[in-house]
Amino acid sequence: xxKKQYIVLSLSLIACFSATASPEEESSKPPFASKVTDVSLxxxxxxxxxxxxxxxxxxxxxxxxRPDEFTIGIYLFNVRDVNTGKGTFTSDFCIWSQxxxxxxxxxxxxxxxxxxxxxxxxxxPQVPGISCIKRCGTGTFRMKWGLHDYPNDSQxxxxxxxxxxxxxxxxxxxxxxxxxxxxxxxLPQGWSFKSFKIEPVSLVLSSNLGDSxxxxxxAAFPGLEVSLEISRNESIEYWSMTIIAxxxxxxxxxxxxxxxxxxxxxxxxxxAFIACIISLRTSMGTINDFNNRVALLHFIVIGFITFSxxxxxILAFLLHHKADPHNLRRYSMFLGIIAxxxxxxxxxxxxxx
Length: 353
Description:
Structural class: alpha+beta
Order of helices and strands: HEEEEEEEEEEEEHHHH
Number of strands: 12
Number of domains: 3
Distance between the termini: 147 Å
CATH class of the largest domain: Mainly Beta
CATH architecture of the largest domain: Distorted Sandwich
């Protein structure tokens, strides 16, 4: 009986200990789970910290320094001393700048196609909230004259304005379209106004001009281009440069009516040839371009005179071989009329082209 009681007592104690052990094991699990969640939270927090550290970099990239803007205007009081021989023209003008920047950009501008610019007046008009600088002076500018259609030509006079101290990412030049222009009444005699433009351009160079922040061997700088188109409406200059050439044509034509036996015929043609060469040289000293009607006219006249010399030599050869002088004179006059008609037609086509 006692053994059975001991056995029952021992079994009850084992059951009691097992019951008390299981809650401890269950209670030991939550701390392990809480540690895992803590690690996951730390990972999330670390991601948030990384994103928060990247945020200021994005803000600073959108707040990059904006370039300074300058409004530039120019007014031409006149255009004078138009010289096609040298390829230049002169103008008295005034240029100004307006900006919230207090710098004097006018003194830093370059006139790329200027032979010389002489300043006479500089001032700073008082404009509330705006820095305004104004300069007036006289400039002589180079250009390439297109004289193919001379004397019915139109010319595009240009003034190139560049700024090379800062590149286009730091400085912007905007044209003052409202106030820029030209005094249309003060153009050279014989010329009429067609159009005026001022527009921004970009000067791209194969050099950074010493600014290593722009990279190597390439940079873009801001600039403006002023363009004035004028057309010629008088041809007095053309006739003054070609009158000698036309006179030599008359000499050539009269030589056909001189007797073949008269040696003065070749003398007249020789004088006409030399006079035409001198006239061509003088005209080219004024125009400095062979691609125009003046030069072509002289070359045509020289060709006709050369043809007349050849005709005279052939007639003299035939006379030497016992040809009839009367018939040779008639042939000469007939060829003279043909040569004159051919020249008139050629001259008409030249002027109408």
